[in-house]
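R.M. (postdoc): so does anyone remember the format we settled on? I'll just put the structure tokens first.
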């Protein structure tokens, strides 16, 4: 089993699967072996389809495998909740954040079913702000959607970090919805589960 040399010690990729060298028939083809591609493949496999995933290098070799893998309920997109509510309204923003929460729980379920922990560590998530007013507005917006969090002013922040740079923060303390893990181990686990359900994965394809 050959190992692929990379410039990161966060994960150790391995060449586990053969490349596709012939024509095949299938119901669906998924391109890319990161968390998005494998999530799609798992969904298709659970639905009973005959699906195939094609990965140009190896599972987790792109952005997913090298990410920090901070899993949190605090973010529904690159925008904050306050900005999204202003743009899309409370109902739509709540739905988007609900999908995030559902995905966070799905990740835990995949890990639990395979009885592997993926280096998962339960911990809260601290969202930091230089602007106290913006932090308060984000705090209120999150509460509107039911996302419990604690507003921390600059003095209370000193319990969590030794810096005067930030003026406020929001602490999301629910360990079930805020955790970190090894992303490469997660995508390998997702690949195994998809293959258990008869999906087929080709690497270097």
């Amino acid at each position: 089993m050959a190992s692929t040399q990379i410039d990161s010690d966060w994960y150790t990729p391995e060449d586990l699967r053969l490349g596709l060298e012939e024509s095949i028939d299938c119901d669906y083809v998924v391109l890319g072996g990161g968390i998005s591609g494998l999530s799609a493949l798992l969904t298709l496999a659970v639905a009973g389809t005959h699906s195939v995933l094609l990965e140009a290098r190896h599972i987790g070799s792109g952005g997913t495998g090298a990410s920090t893998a901070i899993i949190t309920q605090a973010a529904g997109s690159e925008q904050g909740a306050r900005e999204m509510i202003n743009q899309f309204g409370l109902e739509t923003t709540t739905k988007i954040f609900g999908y995030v929460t559902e995905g966070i729980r799905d990740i835990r379920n995949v890990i639990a079913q395979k009885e592997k922990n993926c280096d998962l560590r339960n911990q809260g998530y601290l969202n930091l702000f230089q602007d106290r007013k913006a932090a308060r507005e984000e705090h209120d917006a999150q509460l509107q959607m039911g996302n419990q969090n604690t507003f921390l002013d600059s003095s209370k922040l000193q319990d969590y970090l030794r810096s005067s740079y930030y003026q406020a923060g929001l602490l999301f303390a629910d360990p079930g919805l805020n955790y970190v893990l090894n992303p490469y181990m997660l995508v390998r686990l997702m690949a195994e589960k998809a293959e258990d359900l008869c999906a087929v994965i080709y690497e270097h394809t």
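R.M.: ...and that's the designed sequence above, right after the tokens. Also worth knowing: The beta strands are 28-31, 51-54, 70-72, 121-122, 125-129, 150-153, 168-172, 178-180, 200-202. The two ends are 18 Å apart (CA to CA).
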